[in-house]
Amino acid sequence: MQIFNSWENIRRKKPLIHHITNYVTVNDVANVTLACGASPIMADDLGEVAEITALAQGLCLNIGTLNQRTIPAMLKAAQKADELNHPIVLDPVGAGATVLRTKTAHDILQAVPITCVRGNISEIKALVKGSGNTQGVDAAPADRISTENLTTACTFAKQAAAMLKTTIAITGAIDLVADQNICYVIRNGRPEMSRVTGTGCQCSAITAACIAANPDEPLAAAATAVMAMGLAGELAYENLRPKEGNATYRNRIIDTLCRLTADDLKKGAKYEIR
Amino acid sequence: MQIFNSWENIRRKKPLIHHITNYVTVNDVANVTLACGASPIMADDLGEVAEITALAQGLCLNIGTLNQRTIPAMLKAAQKADELNHPIVLDPVGAGATVLRTKTAHDILQAVPITCVRGNISEIKALVKGSGNTQGVDAAPADRISTENLTTACTFAKQAAAMLKTTIAITGAIDLVADQNICYVIRNGRPEMSRVTGTGCQCSAITAACIAANPDEPLAAAATAVMAMGLAGELAYENLRPKEGNATYRNRIIDTLCRLTADDLKKGAKYEIR
Amino acid sequence: MQIFNSWENIRRKKPLIHHITNYVTVNDVANVTLACGASPIMADDLGEVAEITALAQGLCLNIGTLNQRTIPAMLKAAQKADELNHPIVLDPVGAGATVLRTKTAHDILQAVPITCVRGNISEIKALVKGSGNTQGVDAAPADRISTENLTTACTFAKQAAAMLKTTIAITGAIDLVADQNICYVIRNGRPEMSRVTGTGCQCSAITAACIAANPDEPLAAAATAVMAMGLAGELAYENLRPKEGNATYRNRIIDTLCRLTADDLKKGAKYEIR
Q1: For position B202, which CATH number holds?
Q2: What is the value of pTM for the model shown?
Q3: CA distance C232 to C228
Q4: What is the ipTM of this complex?
Q5: How many structural domains is chain B composed of?
Q6: For chain B, is the Cβ count within 10 Å smaller at the N or the C terminus?
């Protein structure tokens, strides 16, 4: 279970992560980056993104509230990160929901090699197939991964990784983290996490932190981050008191990540490799 | 007390709400939308707002940190929502405080029929009279609704609804929700809510969710949402522990909305119809 | 210990503070402004900033996620504030990290007299020396103020105040608040505050509120605000329960500020004057 050491490496190396992200969940993204032991910097002006990317050890692009001003900034930051061989995580929020989002995600994927793409199944399908059933920022019910369609879903995840030349992290009721050969099937998490805005964005953020601290093992690092997020959702849920709801749950998830150790992960992670 | 069923309809129908909103309170707006059972999507680029509006079942426009880029996006989204007969809620944050805010709110009101306008008394006066005493984002003391001026205030609310061709929700120490014929006078809420940023924005968000789930009854739906917000403020306040202040109060209000039922509303709502 | 009265003045005068700030920590900045007794308004469009500044009693400029659209708005707001003799606080987030940030901070400092600059030691060095070791948004280890280099650091703080013609607040493990003659050395705070995003931005916000409520004593007001922030960090830390982490710590710091009195400050402030 050596992969969990990658979690401790975040705290040991404290990578600086450059985020170009949406303004809805950006504060949680910053706090979750600090919680897992990394350091966040947010900057999205074309006139400074290359410098910020160069200062950082990893780049996390999230298209959640993309606009005409930030799209070129994302592309410029991606080019600089690629030049410096820094890992890049792409969160294609809402790909498949609008032409602009699908196109922007594609443009980023075509501009430079992306280390990891983390999204829900509908978003990943939209990237692979050019169309999707994305409903707002949630996966379409018809797309959802379950015990019934798991074999097909694992094959799809590996194919998507091959096609997009990246590590793929598909999160939902069951999470799949795959490269073209190996697929981690992860059963951590709680359905109540979907009532907290930004748990997907937060997962992408800790994935970027974990890969930046373990740049030679993006698949294991991404799988660890996805397990950590799901396990934090479980442990935080157990700590909820009567009358607490989604706002406090949000705080407890981040609190839990702040205290989560490699040992906790060893004990709590539920996964198999296919 | 049938109006409270409109609250349960949000959870039953889970409407997707498109928000073009300010970046100060956007995270709370997203979490409160999830808390009441709806689903939020934030998008403000001119190149995608029409598609997002079309995917959603309701539109919530909040001019809190409006800018030259987002104003045309708000107008375009409003036009698409009107075309599709989707309800539109407008929160004219700071109308009366600057020419740009008053003008933008007017432009939106003149472009398409707005289902509901939710603001404080100074903002609504600014929209109706073309001038106001708005002080920053708070109502001016001279404008405030009290037991003494209630009859006049109810008449004003009905006139404003008639003039702006909308349902009006005026929130403050006493809340008024009116169309041109009927005015709900609501006495839920706590003065401490004004020390939490964005309780007004949150009220607009759940109003949009409640109207989207009850499109044929905008007045009852808006009244229900305003009562729910006020009641959540009361119940959350009772749950505050020693040493807790406005940050925790914020979380407990959203937590309370997350668990609030139609039964809670029946028990706790304090209103009369005039 | 009369300086602590300046803290109560915020609650007595309830100044309205105009913030042009970053979208990462803006919600916390708004809630902390309310917590200390002031009222926040956020507005960054060139078309309305002068009006908003004129309505307010103080201006807080934070360059955390500056962009080409907001830089001219900051300059325009600064000019209006100067015209009206309103206090201006500048938080030069990331100065020294990029050319754009260093240049923008300089442009603001050269455009009008700034009442107080609050930053970490690397940011202030970047402003004074034209270069810095800023690492992302944190101070460089080599720059940090400690017992060993304290005399030199105090001299530097006074020189920086003289050179930039402002009150300087340098926050870190030891905080220095200085004009050209006097330097407050403040030993409040907790190292864990650096794992909460935006405690620096929050400190700038309450500094702006405290100076706006005490415009004739910017040095004492800034020192009081810096002590209040540090003390809130200490008291909030004592209230943390097992399993709570940086997200709850964030809330408890704001909660503590919401209840902090001049008496608490008298008891808890740890400072000397050099």
Answers
A1: 3.40.1190.20
A2: 0.97
A3: 6
A4: 0.96
A5: 1
A6: N
